[in-house]
Amino acid sequence: MRAIRSRTRDRSGTGPRPGRVDAGWTLIELMLGVTISTIVILLAGGLYLSSVRSVQADSRKVTAQQETSLLSSAISRRVRAGHDVRVYLVPNRGAAVDSGDGLAVVDTAGVDQTYLEWSRTDSALVDGGGQRVSAARIDSLAFIRDPSLPRTVRFRGEVNDRAGYQISFESAVTARN
């Protein structure tokens, strides 16, 4: 920069004024440096914020997938402990249907052992006493009884990851006792 300044000042032929120090930055050089630095900082900040949001979204998806897995395990564990299953529409536990939002696990004597019901108001799977079975926020859940597969129930639904992403799941389990 010094060579450029010296050439522009020497055009008049007189050279720099006596007693004047020709060091430092001009106002234009300072403004250009500040502008370029600001652009670089804004780009770096935008990239950082974008990566933070991406990590948070991925974390919510992983959490929802883990909740879905835990939910499937909880249902499977309860059904395997029973002898048979009955699907019903909540709140009518006595009327068996092929597809519904309630499941009764029945013991060998034909007595209902456990109830699992999808609560639309709480967006949760609850047991017969109204206690949550899973922490997952369930947007839909259906139990399906296939007449060709005795003592087997299929279940499918969707879990929301609290950021608007839906994670679907589907599984089947057979009562073993």
The helix fraction, in percent, is 25-40%
Structural class: alpha+beta
Mean pLDDT: 84
H-E string: HHEEEEEEEEE
Number of helices: 2
The backbone outline, from C-alpha atoms, is rod-shaped
Compute the separation of the termini in Å. Answer: 88 Å
Write the layout of secondary structure elements.
Layout: H1 2-10, H2 27-80, E1 84-89, E2 92-96, E3 99-100, E4 102-106, E5 112-119, E6 124-127, E7 138-145, E8 152-160, E9 166-174
Antiparallel strand pairs: 1-2, 1-4, 3-7, 4-5, 5-6, 7-8, 8-9
Key attributes of the depicted protein:
177 residues, alpha+beta, 5-stranded antiparallel beta sheet, 4-stranded antiparallel beta sheet, 9 strands, 36% helix
Q: What do you see in this structure?
A:
The structure is a single chain. This protein has a five-stranded antiparallel β-sheet with strand order 2-1-4-5-6, with helices on one face. The protein contains two helices and nine strands, in the order H-H-E-E-E-E-E-E-E-E-E. The chain starts with a helix and ends with a strand. The protein is an alpha+beta fold and 177 residues long. It has one domain (44-174).
Short description:
With about 180 residues, the protein is of the alpha+beta class. The protein is built from two helices and nine strands.
